[in-house]
Amino acid sequence: MKNKVALFIGLIAVVLLLMAGCSSGDDENTIKVWTMNNSMEDFVTKYEEENDVSVEVQVIPWGEVKDKFLTAIASGEGPDVVQVGTTGVPEYADAGMFMDLSDYISEYENFNPDNFYEGAIGTTEYEGETIGVPFHVDTRVLFYRTDILADVGYPEGPKNWDEMVDASRQLAERGDDQYAIDLPRDDPQYPFMLAWQHGWNYNEDEGASNFEDPKFLEAMSKYETFYQEGLSQLEEGKELVQAFSDGSKPMFFSGPWDIKTIIDGAPEIEDQWDVRVMPEQDTNRSMIGGSHFGVFHNSEKVEQSLDFINWLADADTQLEWYKDVNELPANLEAWEDPILADDPKFSVFGEQLESTEVLPMITEYTEMSEELLNYMEEVYRGGADLESTLEDYRTKVTDILSE
Amino acid sequence: MEAKSKLEKFIVTLLLVLGGISVSLPFIWMILSSFKTEREVLQIPPTLFPQNPTFQNYLELFQSLNFDVYLRNTLIIVFFSMIGLLLNTMAGYGFGKFEFRGKEIWFMVVLVTMMLPGQITMIPTYLILNEMGLTNTMTGIVLPGLIVAFNIFLIRQFMVTVPDDLIEAARLDGAGEIYIFFKLIIPLAKPILSVQVILTFIASWNSFLWPLIIANDQRLYTLSVGLSLLQDQYATNYGLQMAGSAIMVIPILIIFMIFQKYLVEGFNVSGIK
Amino acid sequence: MTRWKYKLMPLFFIGPAVLLLMVFSFAPIFLSLGISFTDLTLIGLADWSKINFIGIENFVKLFKDKVFLESIFNTFFYVLIGVPLAVSSSLVIALLLSMVGKWLSSTFRLIFYMPSVTNIVAIAVVWGFLYNQQYGLFNYLLSLINIQSIPWLEDPLVAKFSLIILAIWKSNGVSMLIFLAALQSIPKVYYEAADIDGANRWQKFFKITLPSMSFATFFVTVTTVIGWLQFFEEPFVMTDGGPLNGTNSMALYIYQRGFEYNDFGYAAAASFVLFIIVIVATIVQFRFRKKDQTL
Fold this sequence. Notes:
The complex is a heterotrimer of chains A (403), B (273) and C (295).
Chain A: H1 2-20, E1 30-35, H2 40-43, H3 45-51, E2 54-59, H4 65-75, E3 81-85, H5 89-94, H6 118-122, E4 125-126, E5 129-130, E6 133-138, E7 141-145, H7 146-151, H8 161-172, H9 190-197, H10 214-228, H11 240-245, E8 251-254, H12 257-265, E9 273-276, E10 286-287, E11 289-295, H13 302-313, H14 315-325, E12 328-329, H15 338-341, H16 346-353, E13 356-357, H17 365-380, H18 386-402
Parallel strand pairs in A: 1-2, 1-3, 10-13
Antiparallel strand pairs in A: 3-11, 4-5, 6-11, 6-12, 7-8, 7-9
Helix pairs in contact in A: 9-10, 17-18
Chain B: H1 6-33, H2 38-42, H3 56-64, H4 67-97, H5 103-112, H6 118-131, H7 138-142, H8 149-160, H9 164-172, H10 177-188, H11 190-205, H12 209-214, H13 223-228, H14 238-263
Helix pairs in contact in B: 3-14, 4-8, 4-11, 11-14
Chain C: H1 3-35, H2 42-46, H3 57-62, H4 66-99, H5 102-117, H6 120-130, H7 137-144, H8 156-184, H9 188-196, H10 201-212, H11 214-229, H12 233-238, H13 250-260, H14 264-289
Helix pairs in contact in C: 4-8, 4-11, 5-8, 8-11, 11-14, 13-14
């Protein structure tokens, strides 16, 4: 018995020693950075060597960013520099998570808003403050099978929504289990993109009455059409790459990451697919996504942090990052490099990025867009009437905005 | 209750085999998928055996993970959870075999902590830890999970079935309370404790949320957190995930096999009554 | 032993556990209760002076919230169908395991426990395939016997049953282990005595096995009810509450409100409604047991 107690105490002592060994350095030359990308740790070594600064990177898994940010906001215990996805900006900025960088923009050469895509800059601004500097961007384009679309008369893909509907009807008629497109049913951004392309726009001052616009109704009725006529599959069918490869779903909207997915996943259709900018009706606007780097509101190392962000914002840095992990640079100059400019597929993203719209920069956007998906599901799956459902949706939006 | 006739044995075995196959398929699929290419993992209908077996997923796993650091942290948490298990066992025994004032109320307090979904208490718990200055420490990661109401409840349920005479007899023989607990109760409780060890090990081995929330330093991350770092925002790398889970599951299976033999060690009180 | 020492003993045994629970589990519950009477959102989290006390407004709103009411209905549906199936099937597995030889028993124990340690993503992928309406294995098997394809996850009602099957499959392992441990704890002498009295197997089962396992059964039932009232993971990974909100559970709804929309006050209020339901369900079960069990 005695021996066991001694052993037990010994073990605890060992563990406590191990734990004590974990305390981290916290000197003048260390900045803490929160990021979502596992490659960042190795990527910053170049900066560390050049500037004699130690950058302590903490990678946070994408799915848990919210939990981590919430607790940081609640306790005021955060890093110095933080990466934030564009869709999270309004919520976190509203809670005062970021330091306002407006006064520093002129001080650092790489902070100049003209260096970046307009849409990317749009998502760094919240209520007159600048919360960060754009790092990477992404947007959605149309992926399509050139051979199959050629069969129905659109070898370059449908240019506008009329062509899209026409092509889709022909494609769906190819037989059972043949569809035209795989619409992103769970993507809350998609209905908004569709509405922008039909000339609709969200005006922050108008609130729920934005959705009274006949252009919005037109866009949503097109949304409904794709399910009603079986142009897009209602059920969970085949996996995306498989359906694209066997031609049963020869089109889909997606972002830059799916280029690699298709190249790796479907080598047998190597020369039979392409990407093109969004179909146009009134506009061909797509969304702008990506991420920024900002300074946590109570960081004591503002200067070092800004210097690091200045490095991240540089065209060369962002180009290197693209080569490493395939995330698209927000810096316009980086796009002049042949590696992007001459890439037949990625250059399409560059083109699309010129025509993007900023999602409503309001904290209620998440709920508003998720609810729109739910209400639209009532229509295409539950068989509810479109117009009266949109009326209900407006009531819901009024409710959400008044909270 | 052994089966009697041959026919009975056959039917029982058949039922178990059929059930066993259907129950273990996803697990087998998970293991086999870790040797598949990314594309094959998601193919419909899925393949059971990899067409072009590859070790790529495992290679990538070992190259991009700080295994030593994550493993050490995970083991520390496992170690403390076992101390927690001891405390849980003591509490279960206390509730099962002692009479004292307010017992019902205290037991309700224990049960109540099982009843609110974890997400909703996450922020308050974090704030309490923060007030105590325990963020970014191993202590802060370990403490909130040390006591598990479910375990106390289970042990108490078992303790109630231990005959009072047994304990009284030991007391009459002059044994101290602590001696009784360690030398009489714990050996008696082997079947239920082996279940507990398995459950506690799994929970702490997989611990994810607190190490992530409390740590402001990657050096405190655990294996599960490390694995989830390999996940992209959009492109789910299924093959890699399956390889990660396959690796994580091995120690669990070992612990299971070691402790399950105690499961069948009967409750030997026949000599007493 | 002296009297005071005997009085202190329970404190020694339960003290450490109860103290830790009070600080890290019980106190947060009270904090959450407080939050449920406020309009706490992200901004209030950052700056506590911006939190407003709004009384029972959250609760009033909840009971007018169609989605919340649907999620209560779904949750009751899960519990009423799922709990009896889950408890009885794990009991049957444990009994079957106790009827075969040592080697078979220990092998199958491991096999039946496997779903509990299978990665949730793997589960979602495999079951997603099994339930795929067009290409899934289930519908393929049904087509062999000329049964029309079933919309496993595409119909609000059917999807509820599909998730129940999945959840039982996944959670049976733990209950099975507890039943097994309880079965092993039944003194052999009871059966020997019954044999002498010439009891048949069913008599032994109903007069010895079942009553001796009532403690374990009670435990498994109480915890299973609590678990199913907090049904979360299955709809979260398989359907995200859809189609048409048909599989949304209270716990998932709370998660959506709190962690997707940052509406912490409202989510806390919803979780208290769930909390009350769980407490009532548990107390009712304890009352029913009261006759042959002291606390």
